[in-house]
Amino acid sequence: MSYQALIEEAEQLIASNARWTGVTSEAIARMRLQNRFKTGLDIAKYTAAIMRKDMAAYDQDPSRYTQSLGCWHGFIGQQKIISIKKHFGTTDRRYLYLSGWMVAALRSEFGPLPDQSMHEKTSVPALIDELYTFLRQADARELGDLFRQIDKARAAGDTVRERQLRASVDNFQTHVVPIIADIDAGFGNAEATYLLAKKMIEAGACALQIENQVSDEKQCGHQDGKVTVPHEDFVAKIRALRYAFLELGVDDGIIVARTDSLGAGLTKQIAFSAREGDIGDQYNSYLDCEEVEPGQSLNGDVLITRGDKILKPKRLRSNLFQFRQGTGADRCVLDCINALQNGADLLWIETEKPHIEQIAGMVDRVREVIPNAKLVYNNSPSFNWTLNFRQQVFDAWQGQGRDVSSYDRARLMSVDYDDTELAKEADERIRTFQHDASGRAGIFHHLITLPTYHTAALSTDNLAKEYFGERGMLGYVAGVQRQEIRQGIACVKHQNMAGSDLGDDHKEYFAGEAALKAAGEHNTMNQFAA
Predict the structure, then answer these.
(1) Mean pLDDT of the chain
(2) Domain residue ranges in the chain
(3) In the structure, what pLDDT confidence band is assigned to residue 294 with cuts at 50, 70 and 90?
(4) Out of 20, 191, 261, 327, which could bridge 286 as a Cys pair, Cβ 3.0 to 4.6 Å?
(5) What distance in Å separates the CA atoms of residue 241 and residue 41, rounded to the nearest whole number?
(6) Active site members
(7) How far is CA 488 from each of CA 113, 170, 528, rounded to the nearest angstrom?
(8) Ordered alpha helix ranges (H), 319-371
């Protein structure tokens, strides 16, 4: 509904309630526009539709991939979207990612924790709600500025400017974007997964990412010791997510099925198999086994059959069973196909390095069965991108017969190589990685899980070094505030960013000329007006 239509609707409402003194139709219209989304479910339905549209667009043109950055606080998410609107004029195909790793490391009441699902599960939906609270506040803040400009143009009699500003209000693009939220391995059994999923969806999540690790043995995808579950167990959790979406009326909800099988060499269970060749039998076929010899002691052992052979899966002291080495890619392909055939919408293959052909090799096999299979890919800070890509270029050149004798492959991270031809080609491959991988390897969505964990540490280190060193206050002014002013960072007016001007608007609505407003001539934020 347009700005004018909302005003007219409010006028009719006020006319039918004569005792609502001092309530104006334009103020009502403005407050309604500033609070477009009333509940998290409103947000989940709205953003799910966006993701579905983007997925369809990607199927038609792989260059239309999507991106996101991970967040661990509402303010961080808000600033990302404000920056995107500022630099690109639109939030199209840009999302936010909620990383379980960052929740564990930064938001647990137990203090910093590893990525092992030991943090409070309620902290995940709480962060989703917080992110959308800040994004909605960004809407209110930006619209409030437009409304104040409308008042200024009207007071000056500038009808042309007023019409332009009204058009900006009618065409306003919200800061509310899809959030892909990490539910880890479900924090328990399928029922626990379903209950947590409902909380996350009610908070606004339209896309949930779940991994095929054992919940109580969960590890970070880029660390060792990962243990996967049989496919039937994982499918039960995928169904639990779908039921949660459907129960809450988010029929377009997106499930991202993640496989950690590439780096997971262990399983806690032997899969149930009703007949040879079924999904349980296929899972078990990758187990590292030894043939049972006649008279061999089998006390407490589990046995399986392969054809006419009786085999004993190798069991570790941890009571876990191990897979044969070199089967990770095959298991990933099987995981992906089974997940998509049982209700997942997108895939996530956790890899140990950012290598397009490695990813594409698995995706090609999946697409032989499911042609429109699409990935979410973790452009992880756990990878040494510089070293990996320099080594990839080194290996490619060596394979082409080029002279690489001036390079030491083990030392390619060294600053000594920064200005070399090899380093420049590696950087170009990094620059185009997302575009190239989206076309070649079926990656619909690229994300960086932990960007602000690292940027906060880096910027804090630089500030501490300068402020507590010889530069003193100049360390802050030159390195932070002056850059905020010159780069047009809205946060330089931190009072405005925290909602001071919004509060002034409300004071004026509620108290009229008696309102005691903060944004007067003695507000030091006026120093940043230029």
Answers:
(1) 94
(2) 469-528
(3) confident
(4) 327
(5) 15
(6) 220
(7) 36, 25, 10
(8) 328-341, 356-367
